[in-house]
Amino acid sequence: MSSSESFLGFSNGRSFADVPVDDGIPTTEFLEASEYLVKLFDILGSTAFGAVISDMNGNIKKIRDRQTAEPGKSSTLQLLTAQEFEEKKKKATATEGLLWLSRGLDFTSKALRHNLSHPTEELVTSFQHSYDGTLKKHHNFVVKGIFSVALKATPYRKDFYEKIGVSTADPKDDERLTNWLSSLEKVVSTIQGFYGENKDFGF
């Protein structure tokens, strides 16, 4: 992504605002929006986020592989995971991948929401706050160390928003960012609710 291309312009990607949730989350649209969100970590501008990018892309691939193998049973995330579970596979790969991807999306959305809610706070503080409340409890000592390094490499707030083509002082930009974030939060909440209702999945 070039410095002149706005992340929220979505000229080369799908917005979470285009991902409906009411009748099941469509798998294709969700994966496209997730793939584009991963670019956000590229914008953060540090190789320290390589592990984060690799993990999220890996989970996206697990879901897409299942969709490719069983397109008729994968129109929505809910159908895809339910069908995979019904097959009684020893390892529900896509179901596990979606769970971890949703955790990564939750971490991202909470970091940005915290930052927008605290206009003078630097990104490193917001991302650390989010990590402590989301992913940290799921990580072992080694992974916690990797994230510690990555979070410390987070750019300054001003530089980050400039890179994604957003001026938080501009009401229109602020509205675009808020709408995108609200849509992401709604998708994450729906996935989390679905897993909460289906504890038989074993996660």
From TrEMBL:
<dbReference type="Pfam" id="PF08718">
    <property type="entry name" value="GLTP"/>
</dbReference>
<dbReference type="GO" id="GO:0005829">
    <property type="term" value="C:cytosol"/>
</dbReference>
<feature type="domain" description="Glycolipid transfer protein">
    <location>
        <begin position="25"/>
        <end position="165"/>
    </location>
</feature>
<dbReference type="InterPro" id="IPR036497">
    <property type="entry name" value="GLTP_sf"/>
</dbReference>
<dbReference type="GO" id="GO:1902388">
    <property type="term" value="F:ceramide 1-phosphate transfer activity"/>
</dbReference>
<dbReference type="GO" id="GO:0016020">
    <property type="term" value="C:membrane"/>
</dbReference>
<dbReference type="GO" id="GO:1902387">
    <property type="term" value="F:ceramide 1-phosphate binding"/>
</dbReference>
<protein>
    <recommendedName>
        <fullName>Glycolipid transfer protein domain-containing protein</fullName>
    </recommendedName>
</protein>
<keyword id="KW-0813">Transport</keyword>
<dbReference type="InterPro" id="IPR014830">
    <property type="entry name" value="Glycolipid_transfer_prot_dom"/>
</dbReference>
